[in-house]
From TrEMBL:
Belongs to the peptidase S9C family. Residues 1-22 form the signal peptide. Residues 506-721 form the Peptidase S9 prolyl oligopeptidase catalytic domain. SUPFAM superfamilies: alpha/beta-Hydrolases (SSF53474), DPP6 N-terminal domain-like (SSF82171). This is Peptidase S9 prolyl oligopeptidase catalytic domain-containing protein. Keywords: Hydrolase, Protease, Serine protease, Signal. The keyword Signal applies. GO terms for biological process: proteolysis.
Length: 721
């Protein structure tokens, strides 16, 4: 639900192999010729999607991953490419129809990667391919030790902690006997969990390895999105840092308390860096927010929230990780914790940046750390040090999606960058001592052949006064070939999360440029509850979903109608997904006839039902305060349930399109079905676009095309009459 998490994850799911692998057709770069200069769904799906990028140890070459998709085949193909560090000599190494993913440098001349569930290596020119493993269990991620003598392998093992193992004499039964919560997560039933194995690397290959969580019923990395970034090796190759939430059932479902552990290779002993030995968690009421419970108000810093993604410093003296303060609050501010291994002292080194630390990497000097973070709706690269002195390195209207070293001289960084007008591309950042003055050099031009055929809409921001006198930043995107003397139908974009920034994000579904290409102006406000404006602004939504944030939406669209002469106030629509879908359902009963149509994707409609529908109960507890059956509800909980959109259907008067995936276990499909049924029973024009095989997102190419066509057919029907 949180864009801080979901942007990176969506990229990973779309670019990595998974269920979209092509089996026989070698899907490659699409040299599409467009019939006009306007963006289409087909043009979006023709674009290559750059995933992870990594520089060789000597900083001379870059390996990266690109996903290509075929609408006709309804599949994708993931390939490995290389280029020189200056962007020259681009070469695709993958030649077969089989996907190759997770490419990293084994050394300056060798690349390691995954294909068909096994670990391989090849020379930097794509020759000398060697299969290192013959694992009976698919390998999902890997990380070599610095001395290259061992490698961490992620593998999933059978798990029956919440779903009983079926009788051996009933091999064809589809029934499941469920004994506790966390029996399904995101889009799958929890019948396996990931464990890290430590395997030996020899001249003959890699063995199956030793499960460092053997006998423990806990996952590592964290489901559903965690990967190899949740592990790191010490510089002496003797210790592994890993991320784990050591909980099951109800305790898992209500908690975000994940910790950083150190595993000693020689002794096989594990210690928890976040909590002292013998720590006992205070008793938690599973039906209430933890905001005011003892677990979040202890005498001491016990890291009771999300603690993830550890990284050892190059000199081996420290380990840093991303840390959230509170248990049960998935959108808490991501702090940057530095732990001194010799003393156990913890220091939070990005406190002067009152927003999230989204990604980070140590500088070679072990004194500085580079990180990405959102401020005023753009994600830039920052630098902090062990004293917590923060400096902004880059500036511009864009979002950085990653940050890594380019060489080890401390002078260059390697990063992925995108904007509302460009998908991920690879950039080099030449560091400057001056604030915001680092040079940004584009290295990859994956989709230049498509952009060169397109006319794109202009993206500008404006600041709008809210009903309580605050200033709110709003993105305004106008159509290509814009004529300011004309009137345009206009869309209010409602963001999800609920605490995900409306930054310079690029989406292959919620894409503002394709909306603009269809002749719409888009108004995209950074309403209350979004990061990038300080913690107070960000937190003004929890327990108050229908308060100031809804007023902020209306302030944005009202300002557009009053002050932007090209906005046609008689042809307004409101669209959004997840919390944005909830926002649309709520606005449908409270818009005072501003809008002529609505589109809600995967939105919550009935909050009482949502409380127990969702698989991550911590979310409902933090956002609603109380279970709906509690007799001692807080005033905020009473207000939340009283303002559930399903209670105001009697006020609905506007056509609505509901979209939902039936494998969405975060916000179940019954929410979209309920909204659609309610609209039709009231005689309101409505459609329901239902995807039996999609989750909270839409990942399959033909489903994506259908989504876009249905989306714009609905808007055009009501806003272009």
């Amino acid at each position: 639900m949180n864009r801080n998490i979901s942007i990176a994850i969506a990229t990973a799911l779309l670019v990595n192999g998974g269920t979209l692998n092509a089996q026989n057709v070698n899907i490659g770069k699409n040299n599409i010729t467009l019939s006009s200069d306007l963006m289409t769904p087909e043009a979006l799906w023709a674009m290559g999607r750059i995933g992870n990028a990594q520089a060789s140890p000597n900083g001379k070459k870059i390996v990266y991953q690109v996903g290509y998709y075929s609408v006709a085949e309804n599949k994708g193909h993931q390939v490995i490419c290389t280029m020189d560090a200056d962007g020259k000599n681009v070469r695709q190494l993958t030649t077969s129809a089989k996907s190759e993913t997770d490419a990293t440098w084994f050394d300056d001349n060798t690349i390691a990667y995954l294909s068909e569930g096994q670990l391989w290596t090849m020379s930097a020119d794509g020759t000398n391919r060697k299969k290192l493993t013959n694992s009976k269990i698919d390998i999902e991620g890997f990380l070599f030790s610095p001395d290259k003598a061992r490698v961490i392998l992620i593998k999933s093992l059978p798990y029956h902690g919440t779903i009983k193992k079926n009788p051996a004499d009933l091999p064809k039964t589809t029934g499941m006997v469920i004994t506790d919560m966390n029996y399904r997560h995101w889009d799958h039933y929890v019948q396996s969990i990931a464990h890290p194995f430590v395997a030996d690397v020899t001249a003959s290959g890699v063995n199956d390895g030793k499960d460092i969580l053997e006998g423990e019923p806990f996952e590592s990395p964290l489901a559903p999105f965690g990967g190899i970034e949740q592990f790191d090796w010490s510089q002496d190759s003797k210790t592994i840092a890993y991320t784990c939430r050591k909980k099951e059932g109800v305790n898992y479902a209500i908690s975000t308390d994940a910790d950083i552990y150190l595993y000693n290779i020689d002794t096989r002993k594990t210690i928890n860096l976040c909590k002292p030995e013998g720590y006992v968690e205070p008793k938690i009421d599973a039906t209430k927010t933890m905001r005011n419970q003892k677990v979040n108000h202890q005498d001491g810093d016990f890291n009771v929230g999300y603690d993830v993604n550890p990284q050892f410093s190059p000199d081996g003296k420290y380990i840093a990780w991303q840390s959230m303060k509170n248990n049960g609050y998935e959108s808490d501010r991501n702090r940057l914790c530095v732990y001194e291994l010799a003393t156990g002292k913890k220091t939070y080194v990005a406190e002067r940046f009152d927003s999230n630390v989204d990604a980070f990497v140590w500088a070679p000097n072990s004194k500085d750390i580079y990180f990405t973070g959102c401020w005023h709706a753009t994600v830039n690269i920052y630098q902090t040090n062990l004293k917590g002195e923060v400096k902004q390195l880059t500036d511009g209207q864009h979002d950085y999606a990653s940050v890594a070293l380019l060489g080890n001289d401390g002078k260059k960084l390697l990063a992925l960058r995108h904007s509302m007008s460009q998908a991920n591309e690879i950039y080099a950042v030449i560091l400057s001592k001056k604030e915001k003055a680092s040079q940004q050099i584009q290295l990859s031009f994956e989709n230049k052949h498509i952009y060169d055929q397109l006319a794109l809409g202009e993206v500008k921001d404006r600041w709008v006064k809210t009903t309580d006198g605050k200033d709110m930043q709003v993105w305004v995107i106008t159509p290509p070939h814009f004529d300011p003397t004309k009137k345009y139908p206009t869309l209010l974009y409602c963001e999800g999360g609920p605490q995900s920034p409306v930054s310079q994000f690029w989406s292959f579904r919620w894409n503002f440029q394709i909306m603009a290409a269809h002749g719409y102006v888009i108004i995209a406000p950074n309403r209350r509850g979004l990061p990038g404006y300080g913690s107070e602004w960000n937190e003004e939504i929890s327990s108050d979903w229908t308060g100031q944030c809804m007023k902020d939406y209306l302030s944005a669209i009202d300002d557009a109608c009053q002050n932007l002469p090209y906005v046609d106030k008689n042809k307004l629509g409101a669209v959004g997904a997840s919390f944005g879908g909830f926002s649309v359902y709520y606005l449908a009963g409270h818009h005072n006839k501003r809008f002529k149509c609505f589109i809600a994707h995967d939105g919550a409609f009935n909050l009482q039902s949502m409380y127990t529908d969702t698989e991550e109960a911590w979310f409902s507890n933090w956002e609603y305060d109380d279970a709906y059956w509690n007799k001692d509800q807080t005033e905020a909980a009473k207000r939340t349930y009283a303002n559930s959109p399903h209670l105001d259907v009697d006020k609905w008067d506007t056509p609505i399109l509901c979209i939902h995936g039936e494998k969405d276990y975060r916000i179940n499909a019954n929410q979209g079905m309920g909204a659609f049924n309610a609209a039709r029973l009231r005689g309101i024009p409505a459609e329901l676009l239902l995807f039996p095989d999609e989750n909270h997102w839409v990942l399959k190419p033909q489903n994506g095309i259908l989504w876009q066509r249905t989306f714009f057919n609905w808007l055009d029907r009501w806003l272009k009459k």
